[in-house]
Amino acid sequence: MNENDIAKIVFNLGMKVHKALGPGLLESAYQECLYYELKKAGLKVKKEMALPLVYNDVKLEVGYRVDLLVENKFIIEIKSVENLNDVHLAQLLTYLKLADCKLGMLINFNVSFFKNGVKRVINGYF
Fold it and tell me: How far apart, in Å, do the first and last CA atoms of the chain sit?
């Protein structure tokens, strides 16, 4: 399964979660429900995975945690905020770079229409 296949599944399951819960909950609620749905769909998913920073060949644990890592190649960063901004995009781009992943998705569940809260992010591109 490639990253684009994963992205389609994540989008559809994210929409399912959003339809069931609606906007306004904490990020952790959406994360748990999306994690559950991805696992139920048979995908390999890691939650709150620590992501070290490698500097001068030394692994440094600096507190980076990926919300969801799907099939060891697709990162999902979950938000529940009024608006996504540049710092949220920068966070996901950093995670993609550190994890050597090509594609990820920034999902803001605090929106009326799910598709308006989703940004597909490619490593190295804005």
Answer: 24
Check if the beta carbon of residue 47 is closer than 8 Å to that of residue 91: no
Distance CA 15, CA 60 (A): 36
Q: List, as own/partner pairs, every contact residues 53-59 make where C-beta atoms lie below 8 angstroms and the sequence separation is at least 24, other chains included.
A: 53/98, 54/98
CA neighbor of 101 nearest in space, from 109, 112, 93: 93
The Cα 3–Cα 72 span in angstroms is 10
Q: Flag the least confident range among 24-38, 73-87, 91-105, 112-126.
A: 112-126
Count CB atoms within 10 A of the CB of residue 3. Answer: 18
What's the pLDDT tens digit per position in 20-68?
999 999 999 999 999 999 999 999 999 999 988 888 888 788 778 999 9
**Rounded to 5 degrees, what are φ and ψ at 71?**
55, 30
* Residue 120 contacts residue 91 (beta carbons within 8 Å): no
pLDDT score at 126: 46
